[in-house]
Amino acid sequence: MGVMSAPVTVSVTRHIDPSQETEMRAWVQAGTSLAENFDGFLGSGWVRPSQESPEWHMLYRFADAESLARWEASPQRAWWLEAAQGRIESTRTERRTGIEGWFDEPSSVESLTPTPIPPPRWKQMAVIYMVFLPLSLTANWVASHTIAGWSLVPRVVLVTTIMTPLMTYVFLPWVTRKMAWWLHR
Prior knowledge:
The protein has 185 residues and is an alpha+beta fold. 48% of the residues lie in helices and 19% in strands. It is elongated and about 65 Å long.
């Protein structure tokens, strides 16, 4: 059985001449239109500190690292980036995966594709608790029957080391899909 790959969000900081905002918006839309044709594309958007700011934070998200790699290696993306050569300077790129992507806050992002509104924090907490409690009880029950003689610190380290990836890559994705009807109601 293969390991589930988490969605990957890429943030690229770019500097653009504010007088070229119209061209920039068209360039961003063209990139989004190209990326939409790739399997695993989940959406994109951008953030600017102010209307006059030359700094744009471009965001795009793919279902997994493999989908992102196909987009990044594509001739379509190379053509799109080349179209902005000399006008746009890329200064920083970041990639995020894992639990921080579960309930992204889209409030400060001008979205080019529909972005779901995150559920209220209390619903997020309830869903995490629904996963954490049974998993914690099971892990501690197993530990009490298999490694009960271990001292507290090594026992907790082992249980936490096993629980964290299970929560992040298996149970939270599963329960958030199953509870989407309630989370986003």
